[in-house]
From TrEMBL:
Sorted UniProt keywords: Plasmid
Protein's name according to its UniProt entry: RNA ligase domain-containing protein
Length: 277
């Protein structure tokens, strides 16, 4: 699978980035980077920056489910000659310090697409259109087609995020001719909540498996036209906990599989009680 394209900080970017052409400024959303590719059979392969997954790690589970449920395989297969020649890149938003509005922000946001036939990334606007046509939300854009002569990095103010009440984690600057760079908001990093969540898995599950999370999971299962079995609800509740509390749990050195099992027990108990009414 094509490697994830690097995005250097602006100070390390090639001079060509700002020498000519037009820029797109897009929101840098915090979270692990995710890529995927469709095999001729229609099966989707997923990976992070460095590896292709055999088993999907916890912080990616929600994003992988989101893509699997929404990606229009038939439309993509009909639109291209070789589906496997394309690799899709994006971000799996999870709480690595910024508490996004988790009920609004999609579990996957598309960034760019590699075309093996052309051996290059698709143009920015083309990639944005492809993501939308295939059922996925692209990264939001702050400004399009800004002439490089009108861009002054020293005057760049980080805009408000589209996904929570606060400034974006940064701005990705992309030139339509190729090349990209990142400007991060250091003030956002200073406000991030890194306080670990510690405790035994059973204690954590009791605190984190709330009625609201169970209710949202049931609604999500029903929306996907599945029966809200305890197993389905359990999987989605665990995914939401990881997504919304990832950094703090990871800093607390949680045993993810033990937590998964404990979450299942609490979900089953809550589902059993609700069935009694």
């Amino acid at each position: 699978m094509q490697p994830y394209p690097p995005t250097p900080h602006l100070g390390d970017a090639a001079d060509e980035l700002l020498s000519s052409g037009h820029l797109w400024l897009r929101e840098y959303v915090a979270g692990p980077r995710l890529r995927f590719q469709m095999e001729p059979s229609g099966r989707l392969l997923f990976g992070d920056r460095d590896r292709v997954f055999d088993d999907v790690p916890p912080p990616y589970e929600s994003a992988v489910r989101h893509v699997r449920e929404r990606f229009d395989r038939d439309a993509f297969h009909d639109a291209v000659d070789e589906p496997g020649a394309y690799v899709f890149f994006g971000v799996a938003p999870c709480n690595v310090g910024i508490d996004y509005d988790w009920e609004r922000i999609p579990a996957f946001l598309g960034w760019t697409i590699w075309s093996g036939a052309k051996e290059r990334l698709l143009p920015i606007d083309k990639a944005e259109q492809v993501f939308e046509r295939l059922g996925l939300t692209p990264l939001n854009t702050f400004q399009k087609e800004l002439n490089v002569r009108d861009f002054h990095p020293e005057r760049l103010d980080i805009p408000e995020s589209a996904w929570y009440a606060g400034p974006a984690a940064g701005v990705v600057i992309e030139n339509r001719r190729g090349g990209r760079a990142l400007v991060e908001d250091t003030a956002v990093d200073e406000r991030r909540d890194h306080e670990p969540i510690r405790g035994e898995p059973a204690e954590l599950a009791d605190a984190l498996v709330t009625d609201a999370r169970v209710g949202r999971a049931v609604e999500a299962v029903e929306t996907s036209q599945k029966s809200p079995t305890t197993a389905e609800v359990h999987a989605r509740v665990f995914e939401s906990i990881v997504r919304e509390e990832y950094l703090r749990l990871d800093n607390g050195r949680v045993d993810w599989e033990a937590l998964r099992s404990a979450v299942g027990s609490v979900v089953a108990e809550k589902r059993g009680k609700s069935a009694d009414y």
